[in-house]
Amino acid sequence: MRNYKTVTMQQEVLDNVVCNMCGKKISADNDGYIEDYVHIDKTWNYHSDLDGQHHALDICAICYQKWVDTFAVGVLSAQ
Predict the structure, then answer these.
(1) Measured between alpha carbons, how far is 28 from 74 in angstroms, rounded to an integer?
(2) Contact at 8 Å (CB) between 27 and 35?
(3) pTM value?
(4) Ordered per-residue pLDDT tens for the chain, 79 residues
(5) Tally of CB atoms within 10 A around 59
(6) Residue 28 and residue 35: Cα distance in Å, rounded?
(7) CA–CA gap between residue 76 and residue 79 (Å, rounded)
(8) Closest CA relative to residue 66, chosen from 21, 23, 29
(9) Helices (H) and strands (E) in the chain, counts
(10) 60 CB-near residues (< 8 Å, 6+ apart)
(11) Distance CA 3, CA 11 (A)
């Protein structure tokens, strides 16, 4: 005979995102979909002044475009 019990599991759910450049809250629409943004997660390795540091940042689409416009070499756009 099998006996069952009900358990509640905790799950981590994204609540909000804030742009690291402008500080704007990147909002969700009425269906819960969050406006698109760039997430960068980097752990620096040897041969860097940042060796061993871990950086994570989120950039809204407007700030991303402003940032990319400053690049000496443009980003590739695949379409």
Answers:
(1) 30
(2) yes
(3) 0.72
(4) 888 899 999 988 777 899 999 999 998 888 878 889 999 999 998 888 888 899 999 999 999 999 999 999 988 877 6
(5) 21
(6) 6
(7) 10
(8) 21
(9) 1, 4
(10) 19, 21, 22, 24, 26, 35, 37
(11) 25
HSE, CB side, 13 Å, CA atoms: give it for residue 47.
Answer: 0
Report yes or no: 55 and 47 within 8 Å, Cβ to Cβ.
no
* Residues 72, 35: Cα–Cα separation, whole Å: 28
Give the span between the Cα atoms of 6 and 21, in whole angstroms.
44
